[in-house]
Amino acid sequence: MTHSSSGCVVLFTGLSGAGKSTLAEAVAARLIAANYRVQILDGDQMRRELSKGLGFTPEDRIENLRRIGFVARLLARHGVMALVPAIAPYREIRAELRARAPAFCEVYVNAPLTVCEGRDTKGLYARARAGDLPNFTGIDDPYEPPESPEVECRTDVETLEACVERVIGALLA
Fold first, then answer.
1. Contact call for residues 130 and 140 (beta carbons, < 8 A)
2. Concatenated DSSP letters for the chain?
3. How many whole angstroms separate alpha carbon 63 and alpha carbon 152?
4. pLDDT > 90? residue 116
5. What is the pLDDT of residues 4-16, one digit of tens each?
6. Can you give the pLDDT at residue 4?
7. Model's pTM, two decimal places?
8. Are 3 and 144 in contact (CB under 8 A)?
9. Nearest to residue 9, comparing CAs of 87, 74, 66?
10. CA triplet 90, 145, 123: central angle to 5 degrees?
11. pLDDT per residue over 19-75, tens digit each?
12. Contact residues for 7 (Cβ-Cβ < 8 A; gap 6+)
């Protein structure tokens, strides 16, 4: 699925703390070094800049992802590999993003909830468990794992380099 000239949308989906941004940044570095056009659309940053004012209800999460997907599609149409590390908890919106993109690769960044909670540098899981963050994915809002992603990375048992190799392999195959 070579996307070097046509661009693509690469969605890195998984729980908070699974390693989506870390993996997307490592993949971006490798692609940029190989002279591909790459842009990371980080879910947290996009929420602050593009979706300010949206909350974390299921409807707001879906709208946030639609907005990110729109920007990613624009980039992909202009030959950019748009890397999107975002929780994207619902299968339905991921399917919508896939259907609308000129080319799409879903990367399931899979780590168990206990591992993600252990990596919780921002303290979000602790706040969610205390009731301070309602609708937190994995705690009181569901995460629907992808049923057939192009790539699955088990970040609790695989090295970052092994995951990067598999994602690059899928993108450039």
1. no
2. ---TTT-EEEEEE--TTSSHHHHHHHHHHHHHHTT--EEE--HHHHHHHTSTT--SSHHHHHHHHHHHHHHHHHHHHTT-EEEEE-----HHHHHHHHHHSSSEEEEEEE--HHHHHHT-TT-HHHHHHTTSSTT-BTTTB-----SS-SEEEETTTS-HHHHHHHHHHHHH-
3. 25
4. yes
5. 457 999 999 999 9
6. 45
7. 0.93
8. no
9. 74
10. 80
11. 999 999 999 999 999 999 999 998 788 888 888 888 888 899 899 999 999 999 999
12. 37, 75, 76, 77, 78, 79, 80, 81, 82, 102, 103
Q: Quick one: which of 147, 126, 118, 143 has its CA closest to 17?
A: 118
Looking up tokens 């992603």 gives 149
Domain over 8-172 is classified CATH 3.40.50.300: yes
Residues composing the chain? 173
- Using the structure block, give the residue that is written with the tokens 């990375």: 153
115 is written with which tokens? 């591992």
